[in-house]
Design brief:
alpha/beta; FAD/NAD(P)-binding domain; Flavocytochrome C3, Chain A, domain 1; 3 domains; 24 strands
């Protein structure tokens, strides 16, 4: 039988994946005149970035300078050396420090991307040398999703538990206003305006078009990329790299039931979100236990590592953690669907909330970062724990998917997600922890909470802890005794926001082979790039900050290669049998 020829397409650049790193690369390259294709395996674009908080952590941004932030390259280097430890990579860190603010400035001047400085946002280890109280964390400015035109319905929608009223997005500021709606006329007015906008949107759209956080980030970058000719292929999977004369020159894509050759003069950028949702993930976790709940979409299955193996690409080793950890709860709907909720900012640090292990004992500072929280679970051999609060905390802050007053959370109780009991002892019996131990835990915690000092674990003991608490609660924004029934509990599992281990690159995001040489035409950004933080979590936005930075650097490196009058000596890609 005659050999069936594959359909062939020609681009300057192919980007595999449609998260923040992928679209930062695509938008930069397209704005600089390249013909770009973005290939996305899922039915919607945006990946994990679209459901993230959207924050970036960068040094020396224009926003920080305008606010008079006192920071320096030496300070951030000192801080990162302290947090990262032996895995500190000077070349990558220097590129991040030097070019991160340049990347953001260029993207804001040449695309729809817009960020605002958080007026106060301590680094996650605020007492470490070189840490800052504000200046490095920026948050996404809201965006009108209607600017995406027909692409709006293809944008990945956040899970229902991260939305209000079935389709309304909120950011960190909005959440604080909703929590204060009964205590502040200003907050009430803010919330009423948001709800009115949402009501108007629902007359014509399946959800609200006011986009915030990671959804706004993706929409801003994508709309800019589309405006400069970038094509997007959804439901399309990269299955094989095309190597010509030792250079990665394209990719074979499985699309609409057939394979197609896509040639790319400038090469291929892997931005497929890592491997946290694939079978590969089990072998990279410190303890293989079920269930471990990732927030990564099923399509983040390690495709970049598999593609990289075929050209002898180097893979990261010796990371502090191979994932960016977060505690996650899961609701099982009657339909059989599972809905996951990452416990990042809304509940753990609030007054009147504690976490206990299966024995009923506290084991962690609940107001520390989500990454540190799960690290402590692993260190103590805890597969799952309980997040507990009293009626006062539930009414004010909610717990996981459970909303604060006046929302009726009975459906979550009926589904077995939220546990409720009239007394603390009855709650202990309901969730299967030792009632006597649990009551002793509460007695000790409540005594300390009344005095505003947690002697056992230091909840609310540093500026980051207190920032995550309730600023209107005194004397400690993170501490209140659990005394008022009914009492509530939610089971938390070890979980993650994505993988940290990936393909090893240089400072241009060019993938290196196992001998440490660049593989011409192959790049990795986002979670496909081996994390320069080496599995640590220094502050909010330490995945998206590097994603934008190295996506921009990769695009510029590719543009420079294509525009060079003579090509430098290129390192062949070593293929394996």
């Amino acid at each position: 039988m005659p050999t069936l020829e594959l359909a062939q397409h020609n681009f300057d650049l192919v980007v595999l994946g449609s998260g923040a790193a992928g679209f930062a690369t695509a938008a930069t390259a397209a704005r600089r005149g390249l013909k770009v294709l973005v290939v996305e395996k899922a039915e919607h674009f945006g990946g994990t970035s679209a459901i993230s908080g959207g924050a970036v952590w960068l040094y020396g941004t224009d926003q920080a300078r305008a606010a008079g932030v006192k920071d320096s390259p030496e300070a951030i280097r000192t801080y990162l050396k302290q947090v990262i430890g032996d895995g500190y990579d000077p070349a990558l860190i220097d590129a991040f420090i030097e070019h991160g603010h340049q990347a953001l400035r260029w993207l804001e001047q040449n695309t729809e991307l817009r960020y605002a400085l958080r007026p106060y946002s301590p680094d996650y280890y605020p007492d470490a040398p070189g840490a800052t109280q504000f200046g490095r964390a920026l948050e996404m400015v809201e965006y009108d999703g209607k600017q995406l035109g027909p692409h709006f319905n293809d944008l990945q929608m956040p899970p229902p538990g991260m939305l209000l009223f079935g389709g309304m997005m909120v950011n960190r500021v909005d959440i604080q206003h909703f929590l204060s709606i009964r205590r502040s006329p200003r907050s009430l007015w803010h919330c009423l305006k948001l709800m009115a906008r949402y009501a108007r949107d629902r007359l014509h759209h399946p959800r609200g078009t006011r986009l915030t956080t990671g959804n706004a980030l993706i929409a801003r970058l994508a709309s800019s990329a589309f405006a400069h000719g970038t094509q997007l292929w959804l439901r399309s999977e990269a299955v094989e790299l095309i190597v010509e004369r030792g250079v990665v020159a394209g990719v074979v894509v499985q699309r609409e039931g057939r394979r197609e050759r896509v040639l790319a003069r400038g090469g291929v950028v892997c931005a497929m979100g890592g491997f946290a949702a694939g079978a590969l993930a089990d072998s990279y976790r410190p303890v293989r236990q079920a269930p471990h709940l990732t927030m990564s979409p099923p399509t983040n299955d390690g495709a970049a590592l598999r593609l990289g193996q075929a050209v002898a690409a180097a893979q990261g080793e010796g990371l502090v953690a191979n994932f960016f950890w977060a505690p996650v709860s899961e609701l099982r709907h009657a339909s059989g669907e599972h809905e996951r909720f990452p416990h990042l900012v809304t509940d753990r640090a609030k007054p009147g909330v504690i976490a206990v292990n299966p024995d009923g004992r506290r084991f962690v500072n609940e107001s520390d970062s989500y990454h540190h929280f799960v690290q402590t679970m692993f260190a103590n051999g805890i597969a799952s724990c309980w997040l507990v609060c009293d009626a006062e905390a539930m009414n004010r802050y909610g717990l996981g998917l459970a909303r604060p007053k006046p929302v009726d959370n009975q459906a979550l109780i009926d589904a077995g997600y939220l546990h409720r009991a009239t007394t603390a002892q009855a709650l202990a019996q309901a969730i299967g922890v030792d009632p006597q131990v649990f009551m002793q835990t509460l007695e000790q915690f409540n005594t300390d909470a009344r005095n505003g000092i947690d002697r056992a674990f230091g909840k609310g003991g540093n500026s980051y802890n207190r920032y995550m608490g309730d600023p209107q609660h005194t004397p400690n924004p993170c501490l209140a005794p659990l005394t008022r029934g009914p009492f509530y509990a939610i089971r938390l599992h070890t979980g993650d926001l994505g993988s940290a281990c990936g393909l090893v690159t240089n400072a241009d995001a060019n993938v290196l082979n196992r001998n440490g040489h660049p593989i011409t035409g192959l790049y990795a950004v986002g979670n496909d790039m081996n994390s320069l933080m080496k599995g640590t979590y220094p502050g909010p936005g330490i995945t998206l900050g590097p994603a934008l930075t190295f996506g921009w650097l990769a695009a510029n490196h590719i543009v420079a290669r294509l525009q060079a009058p003579t090509t430098h000596r290129e390192t062949p890609a070593c293929t394996t049998n």
